[in-house]
Amino acid sequence: MPIVRIEMWPGRTKAQKAELARVITEAMVTIAHTTPEAVIVVFEEVPKENWAQGGRLASEPPPSP
Fold first, then answer.
1. What is the 3-state secondary structure (H, E, C) of 22-45?
2. Which phi and psi angles does 2 have, rounded to 5°?
3. How far is the C-alpha of 8 from the C-alpha of 44, rounded, in Å?
4. Is 28 exposed, middle or buried (0-12, 13-18, 19+ CB in 10 A)?
5. Which of 16, 30, 37, 50 has a beta carbon 3.0–4.6 Å from 12's, enabling a disulfide?
6. Residue spans per domain, the chain
7. What is the pLDDT along the chain (65 residues), one digit of tens a residue?
8. Is the separation of the CB atoms in 39 and 24 below 8 Å?
């Protein structure tokens, strides 16, 4: 049973998540030779204040040029 975990910032709509789940499931079936019923997709929304890149929190404004 493949489990695909998606971590992203909050803000995607239910429709966007449904489409992502559909195309990810289709890709797993095609490439990994499994069944749609076996594929689990988990969306985890991580608030920007809990996400850092390049040593900066994503919730911080970008640096001035």
1. HHHHHHHHHHHCCCHHHCEEEEEE
2. -75, 135
3. 6
4. buried
5. 16
6. 11-51
7. 899 999 999 999 999 999 999 999 999 999 999 999 999 999 999 999 999 999 999 999 988 88
8. yes
